[in-house]
Automatic annotation (TrEMBL):
This is Oxidoreductase. Residues 48-307 form the NADP-dependent oxidoreductase domain. InterPro entries: AKR2_Oxidoreductase (IPR053135), NAD(P)_OxRdtase_dom_sf (IPR036812), NADP_OxRdtase_dom (IPR023210). It comes from Streptomyces olivochromogenes. Gene3D superfamilies: NADP-dependent oxidoreductase domain.
Length: 323
């Protein structure tokens, strides 16, 4: 498993990774995006922003970087950075397939991405990813599996994924939606020749959406590395948008609402890697403070009270506009 390399890191931030969803394309659903990125979102501007973030993350001990075919040019930006840093040989690189980016570098497209979990899409996007990342790719994940995803039952696809695994690529899946727990458990049951297919799971878990926790614990116990995404709830837990309880605890700790929110995830025994979705170096630095936040029982109780019904959470997420 490539994630074994993370266990050898000695920095306190070794369990925080950097996701590139917010900087690999001009439009996304994160709150505060206009302030974070400004008006200039040209390809070269966001390429430079991505490289700045990657440099800052690596310098501060981050060793997992996460992209996707649907994150605009995230794989391209990441590949460029890796080529410019030949000394960087101790990172783990993950990407995802299953969504196609369709916004053509605009922020007002009718559709920004189209989901398709068929074998044909896997083969096309696997070739596209290979052309950019080559043998630097460690982990390839099915993007946003739901319980009814054909990727969970397509035996021909499973055989192709197992073939890639036999060649050294770790195979994983990510989840989205109010039935994440069901999707995780269904994926855990997928085997090829009696062996589990998936080695990692990447799911949404945060102060407001905790419903996947029991299934993620089961995945961890089954030997999968658990990667947590959307720990900031697409900006809903950032200081200017965070619930009063989060802001109050941040004041008590002397750190940011983001650090408090991510600290809650870091303390979960099943969490292997927690992604920062920072769009600026300042946000990244603040996110990394999560490693030193020590939440007491009273603070944990107050945070637990903020969890929303998953249907309510995902309905609200679905209403967030693309900025």
């Amino acid at each position: 498993m490539p994630f074994a390399r993370l266990a050898t890191a000695t920095t306190p931030t070794c369990h925080i990774g950097l996701g590139l969803a917010a900087v690999g394309r001009p439009g996304y659903i994160n709150l505060g995006r206009d302030h974070d990125l400004g008006e200039d979102r040209s390809v070269e501007t966001l390429r430079a922003r991505t490289h700045e973030l990657l440099d800052a993350a690596y310098a501060q001990g981050v060793r997992y970087f996460d992209a996707a075919r649907s994150y605009g040019r995230s794989e391209e930006f990441l590949a460029d950075w890796l080529k410019s840093r030949p000394d960087v040989d101790d990172v783990v690189i993950g990407s995802k397939w299953g969504y196609t980016y369709t916004a053509d570098w605009t922020t007002d497209a009718e559709k920004h991405e189209v989901k398709d979990h068929t074998l044909a899409t896997y083969e096309r996007q696997r070739a596209e990813t290979a052309a950019l990342l080559g043998d630097r790719l460690d982990l390839y994940q099915i993007h946003s599996v739901t319980p009814d995803s054909p990727a969970l039952t397509d035996k021909e696809l499973h055989a192709k994924l197992a073939e890639a695994a036999a060649q050294g690529l770790s195979i994983g899946f990510s989840t989205s939606g109010p039935a994440q727990a069901d999707a995780i458990r269904a994926a855990l049951a997928v085997t090829v020749d009696g062996e589990p297919l998936f080695r990692t799971v990447q799911s949404t878990y945060n102060v407001l959406e905790t419903s996947a926790a029991p299934a993620l614990a089961e995945a961890h116990d089954a030997g999968l590395t658990v990667i947590v995404k959307e720990g900031m709830a697409n900006g809903r837990l950032a200081a200017e948008h965070a619930p009063d309880a989060v802001r109050a605890i941040a004041e008590e700790t002397g750190l940011g609402a983001d650090a408090v929110s991510l600290a809650l995830i870091l303390r979960q025994p099943w969490a292997g890697v927690v992604l920062s979705g920072a769009a600026t170096s300042a946000q990244l630095a603040s996110n990394l403070h999560a490693a030193v936040v020590d939440l007491d029982e009273d603070q944990l109780t107050r945070l637990a009270a903020l969890a929303e019904d998953p249907d309510v959470y995902w309905e609200r997420r679905g209403q967030l506009p693309w900025h």
